Amino acid sequence: MTLQIDTLAYTNRLRWLAPEQKLLFAIALLILTAFAHPPIQIIIAIWVSSWTVIYAKIPLTIYLKLVYIAILFWLTSFPALVINGIDINYLNLIQDDAIIGLNVGDYYIYISHYGIEQGWTILTRAIASLSCLYFVMLTIPFTELLQTLRRFGFPVILTDILLLMYRFIFVLLNTASEIWFAQQSRSGYRTFSIGIKSLSLLIGQLLRRTLENYRQVSLSLASRGFNGEFKVWHPHRYNFSKRYAIEAIIGYVVLIALEWG
Known about the structure:
This protein has helices at 2-11, 19-35, 38-55, 60-82, 113-139, 142-151, 156-185, 192-223, 242-260, and strands at residues 83-87, 98-104, 107-112. By secondary structure, the chain is mainly alpha-helical. The protein has a 3-stranded antiparallel sheet with strand order 1-3-2.
């Protein structure tokens, strides 16, 4: 999935659009999402998703898979928000909040009306925020995103750390995939006990190979006269779109009017 996201960032239909324009658009909507009410957050999610799927031509199945992962995380925390318990002697305190419940010993376990509202608010805010982040991830290559952050005055040391982390994600995924396929070909997971042993070996080998790869990267950087800053070259062949800028500004103003109206 990570490799596919990186490929889409280089091949999407908004590749020619200036990364500054796309990044400012996403940041502005992300700020509005933090203060908006759920209906406006839903509109933001739909609007940004349409930019990602329709304008950038990101496959809908891939985009829905990313959204599904976020919803799955939300579902794991939803029961903790909705299901509450209280001492049976204090039932009068939750008469307006409890929807349905039952007695369990000296406690009353119930479904909270406020918890459902809170869970719904978290879901809409999370989906709207992730829509903005997915728009950036799927339309701006990571190296160009770091270059844009540098032009905005982002500290160089942080962008270099992010670049290294991004590179080692692919190294870890590739190494783990090679080891796992080698173990699978030797029936390394045919039983639970053997699977646990194979998994421990995989983690150990992954750590060893990662450290070895890090050593090789350090030696290669030192041999090339690394001075503490990564220089990533890319041709600056972008265009500023007045049409998209006008559409973004009008849409943003409408969202603010709906929020405060």
